[in-house]
Amino acid sequence: NNKCTMVSFENGKFVLRKRDERPHLRSRRSERLRRIFAIALAVSFCYFINRRSIIQPETTTDDLSLLRTARHADVKSYDGSSAVGGLSFHSSSQDSNEDSDDDDQVRNAAVSRSQLHDEKKKSPDQAKEVERSSNKCNISLNKKYLKYLSSLEPIPQKVHIFFPDKNYWNKEPSKSFPFVEHSILSLKNLNPDWNVTVYDDAMIDDVIRNAADFDLISREERDILVGKKDDDGDGSEENNGVVHKVSHVVERSDIARLLLMYTEGGFYLDADRLVSKSMKDVIPRPSTTRMCLPTFNDVNFCQDLICSSRGNDLFLDMIKEASKIRVAAKRRNGWIKGGGLFDLGPVLYNQQILMRVFGGDEETHDKCRDDFLLAREMIVADSDEIIITTKESSCNDGLLMDEASLPECYGREDLFDAYGMTPWAVEVDALWDNA
């Protein structure tokens, strides 16, 4: 017959076996097996590669609350609040829909840690942050802007503070409060050669009017901010001839601090800032440093603590951008909504910093939100102290204070109660909700 034979060694014996008479079928089976194996190998490899690229970290409850605090407070510190111009900044609870939106935004927020310096030296927590890398947040320190900053004069020895009573630190009962002792009085005692000015509401309005006189803002914007009565009799009798009602003091204080940074320079502090360091320790190289950009828990740059050389046109950019938003904003009795106030304050402040200092674009803030550790480390590594920064992590650990010199915190409640100061968000929301 045509069958072939073969010899195999089985169980210690040589055995004669018949070979399949159809070798072409065996060849086809072998080819199919080879193809199946190759496909399986390719699928496994693709799955491994894709899994490495698409794994996303879970957003923790702390992450969600941190973003809520940053969005609904004034880029705020510690307990979520601060004080300016008669009303305190305070994080407010929003409706459940807004909270849900916040949760979605946090989960979708792009995070990048891949470019941090000295990754091998990082703590386990920091190493975990590096694992959350994403290429969506692409920023780098703007060398041209650093060169521009270095051409400015040193930061002047001035401190600007806003409070309803410009003499609160020098009268009873407020000057006896422990909080006052460890904030403005400590600032003055530690820095006797610095000029500290407290601006009440009328002085804030004067800053705004002066800006209009020098064309930093328009007359229309001035009237929107500080109000206007119609001298020509065109105003309604119902409003006693008022054409523009005064805007909320939070809105006025936000623009006034930018105007002061641009026209005078120095430091701006919210009135609820504790101080335990001298400015010599805060700015160890005054001939070099031109600006400070501390972060609030690396979520964003603090808007309640600013310092700059005079004439820094980053603040002029902020002023001009705020003008566009302000003039078009809807108002009720002169006030815009709480969300609009927030957009004109912390949001605009951080957007402009990312665009100018880090060379970003209009979308950079959304892409890099919640990722300011990267920005802070870039400043530390590459700015040569032209810009100084630190992480403001608690009420006694930041740029102006540390635990060594301020072992405990002091609450501002007595001071705020003495002046009847209440959360601004509650007041604004009530106006819009009840109308």
What does this protein structure show overall?
The chain is an alpha/beta fold. It has helices at 23-54, 61-72, 96-108, 124-130, 143-150, 178-181, 184-190, 201-213, 219-226, 249-263, 279-282, 313-328, 338-356, 364-368, 372-382, 413-418, 424-434; strands at residues 4-10, 13-19, 81-84, 87-90, 158-162, 195-199, 228-229, 242-244, 266-269, 291-292, 295-296, 300-301, 305-308, 387-388, 391-392. It is globular and about 80 Å long. Mean pLDDT is 75; it is low at 1-26, 47-135 and 232-239.
Outline the secondary-structure elements.
Elements: E1 4-10, E2 13-19, H1 23-54, H2 61-72, E3 81-84, E4 87-90, H3 96-108, H4 124-130, H5 143-150, E5 158-162, H6 178-181, H7 184-190, E6 195-199, H8 201-213, H9 219-226, E7 228-229, E8 242-244, H10 249-263, E9 266-269, H11 279-282, E10 291-292, E11 295-296, E12 300-301, E13 305-308, H12 313-328, H13 338-356, H14 364-368, H15 372-382, E14 387-388, E15 391-392, H16 413-418, H17 424-434
Parallel strand pairs: 5-6, 5-9, 10-14, 11-15
Antiparallel strand pairs: 1-2, 3-4, 7-8, 9-13, 10-13, 11-12
Helix pairs in contact: 2-3, 8-9, 8-10, 10-12, 12-13
Amount of beta strand: 5-15%
* Broad shape: globular
- DSSP summary, beta strand count: 15
Report the average pLDDT across residues: 75
**Rg from C-alpha positions?**
31 Å
User: Which strand order does the major sheet show?
Assistant: 6-5-9-13-10-14
Poorly predicted tracts of residues: 1-26, 47-135, 232-239
- Decide which structural class fits the backbone: alpha/beta
- The number of helices is 17
Distance between the termini: 104 Å
Question: Biggest sheet: strands, sense, closure?
Answer: 6 strands, mixed
- Percent of residues in helical segments? 40-55%
